[in-house]
Design brief:
With about 300 residues, the protein is an alpha+beta fold. Helices cover about 20% and strands about 20% of the residues. The structure holds 2-oxoglutaric acid (AKG). 2-oxoglutaric acid binds next to β12 and β13. The site of 2-oxoglutaric acid (AKG) has 9 residues, from β12 and β13.
């Protein structure tokens, strides 16, 4: 039965789809007004990149970036870099949906905005988030807040359904982490990927172990995706605690309470070490990948 939760957010069918396929789209989480507030700030952040010539703690720049034509691939850590994105991470409808997928206690462990701008937006090669940040259990997912409509032709997220229950694939090249799978040797039929599309204000939820990537934006319209990485409070990043203090760690709790008792569930883990030669973002990590799937 396709029952709505008490809040009407994320039906039983959507929760089952998330469990079976490793991803689902839930519509109308953010209102047009919420989206307008976020994109207004985002436009200001991108315009301010005119003063920046190197990647830094806020900006990952497109290789074609110049001060006259600021071209930003990614805003790093928007949760920390602008209060609007911290406010929206606690949006009641988003929290209600996350409770359906992860239970009552969860925290934000990372955030980013991938801009995939009209005509030049960067591709993201096939990967599993799990290869970047394995945890003690896999109640870990990424929310993609669609700041624009995500359509078939503006480089939508592509996901291999069901791959979240399989192995963790090799994300190394020449003995170093490279943040991508080799499409020629991984043995996956990547043509069976599902396109994740939806209207602005919708959210995709994808499991940290599911294989995903995205191609070029061939349209004349931006495809801006705000990604919040969320983990059950008892899923601990096995690389350690990122925040410098317990208070900062506790501030990342979006619902429920923190715990110092991790839940241990065996999962296939490969550590992202030795670290990537090119650090700073997935785009940088993947820049030395020899066998690419998506044309740039
Ligand atoms: O923006 C996209 O299409 C892919 C996002 C992603 O997988 C990532 O940034 O890790």
């Amino acid at each position: 039965m396709n029952t709505l939760s008490a809040d009407g957010i994320a039906s039983d069918a959507q929760v089952s789809q998330y469990r079976d396929a490793g991803f689902v789209v839930v519509e109308d989480i953010f209102s047009p007004r919420d989206i307008a507030r976020m994109t207004e700030i985002l436009d200001e952040l991108v315009a301010a990149a005119a003063n920046v010539s190197e990647h830094n703690a806020v900006y990952d720049l497109d290789p074609s970036h110049t001060p006259d034509h600021p071209r930003v691939r990614r805003i790093k850590n928007p949760f920390r870099n602008h209060p609007i994105f911290a406010e929206m991470a606690r949006h009641p409808k988003l929290l209600a949906a996350l409770t359906r997928f992860l239970g009552p206690d969860f925290r934000l462990h990372g955030s980013k905005i991938n801009l995939k701008s009209a005509d030049y937006g960067a591709t993201v090669e096939w990967h599993q988030d799990w290869a970047f940040y394995p945890h003690t259990n896999d109640d870990v997912l990424a929310v993609g807040v669609m700041l624009d409509d995500m359509t078939e032709d503006n480089g939508p997220l592509l996901i291999i359904p069901g791959s979240h229950t399989g192995p963790t694939y090799d994300h190394h090249q020449d003995g170093r982490f490279i943040g991508a799978m080799d499409p020629q040797t991984c043995g996956i039929d990547l043509t069976r990927a599902a396109q994740v599309t939806g209207k602005a204000g919708s959210c995709s939820f994808h499991h940290a172990r599911v294989i995903h990537g995205s191609g070029q934006n061939r349209s004349g319209k931006d495809r801006r995706l705000l990604l919040y990485q969320i983990a059950a409070a008892d899923a601990w990043d096995i690389r350690g605690m990122e925040e410098p203090t317990w208070e900062e760690y506790a501030n990342t709790i979006l619902a429920g309470a923190p715990t110092i008792e991790p839940r241990l569930v065996p999962t296939p883990i490969r550590l992202p070490y030795p670290p990537a030669e090119h650090a700073g973002s997935i785009y940088e990590n993947q820049s030395a990948l020899k066998n690419r799937y998506f044309s740039q």
